[in-house]
Amino acid sequence: MNGLYDEIRIALYRVWNRRWLALAVAWGICLLGWLVVALIPNTYASEAKLFVGQQAMLSISMIDDRNDQRQQMDQIQQTLLSADNLEKVIRATKLGDNISSDREMATKIVSLRENIEVKSDQPNVFNITVKQSGAGRSDGEAAALARDIAQKIIDIFQEENIAGGAGRTSQALRFLDQQLADRQKELQDAEQKRVAFETQNLGLLPGAGSASQQLLSARAELSQIDSQLASAQSSLAALNGQLAGTPAMLSTPNPSGGGSQISQLQGQLASARARGWTDSHPDVIALKEQIASLRASGAGESGGGSFKTPNPAYSSLQSMQAERAATVSALRARKSALEADVSRLIGKQSAEPGVQAEYERISQDYDVLKQQYDKLLAERENMRLKGEVEEETDLTQFRVVNPPSMSRVPAAPNRPLLLAAVLVVGLAGGAGAAFALSQLRTSFPTAGSLEKASGLPVIGSISEMLTEAQRAARKRKLKLFFGGTGALAGVFLLLMMVEFIQRGTVA
Hints:
Distance between the termini: 59 Å
Shape: elongated
Helix content: over 70%
Largest sheet: 4 strands, antiparallel
Order of helices and strands: HHEHHHHEEHHHEHHEHEHHH
Structural class: alpha+beta
Number of helices: 15
Radius of gyration: 60 Å
Oligomer: single chain
């Protein structure tokens, strides 16, 4: 602790030993810094508070979505700081006195927008702050200009929202009508494209008539044809066997004898077999017994010879054979046609996923356009209702809570604080310069520092002895030093007084 105390004493001694250098550096820094502070133009701010309320005579959701305070804030700010409104403000105030070209106007608009701040601390209450620099004009003119700009912004905002509500509604309706016409044309084109695609790819699209459904139906029918064909072929084979066992001609011994009856019974027997009756059928058994009885009773009779007659059973079997053969041929032809259809449908089915994907994409585009069209149509209806309500009542209320103020104190810079900061920096700079010079020109203010630096024991130290003339000279120099330091402080106080006097003279 004692070592630190000694180091502080040594540092203060070194600075004090070169106090004139410190004072000169402090004067230089302060004069330069105060000059820079004096050249900074004052910026004055004018503040106003505006209330923008919404009447709740109708359902708010029916007219507009005003539940989002942030969205309302952005809308108010965009309206206040639009390029058209700022141009009107510039032309109505002194800002537009020296503007002669569109480029200068654009530059002024950008500069003015940067100096206007709109914020909302409470619902429907907006704080408007306008800052204006005093560069090129007096402080009073700058403060008055900031107030005039704020007042003009409020006036223009009120005029546009009260008198221009109907115009904006009409303009919005025209815009929505144009958008609806465009969307309707796009919707019609999308509908025509979808219909043309459906017509071109009929049978490949999802539904009852798709290739998959047709393939399932064809395979089911093919299975039925196979079953019918097998049954018809089996029936034809049985009929061929019966035809092979049936004689084409019958021998008739005598027309007047029992041969005629035997021939009739044999014909009936052949017809019964043709119908599929078996030998165990009662009618077949009865016919066989009758034939056997007739043959037994007329076996020895001979009427004068015999002759050949066509067998009616054989003719009936032939006609039935032709019918069965025709059925088999038709079923085979139908089976071949179905097999060709199945092969064709299998080929179409391979292309069906791509067609379906393209159809889904076209349908999705149509649905998106339809949704957009319906949304625009609903927005247009809401806008129309809003216009009707605005014609009946004043939907938006305006009230200036606090009119634009005219400040006597500049918003920037904080000149008293800057002047004090320059003084502190000047004193610190002077002390630092004196200390740095003492480090370059080393001296030993105490015997301990000399002993520490040299590493040799120091026996003692001798105090400086001054004559009366030297003491008087030192006193005069000390008075001059304190006078210079006091003068520096006096200049600081004078500048502070001038600053406050100028604030009091702002009109």
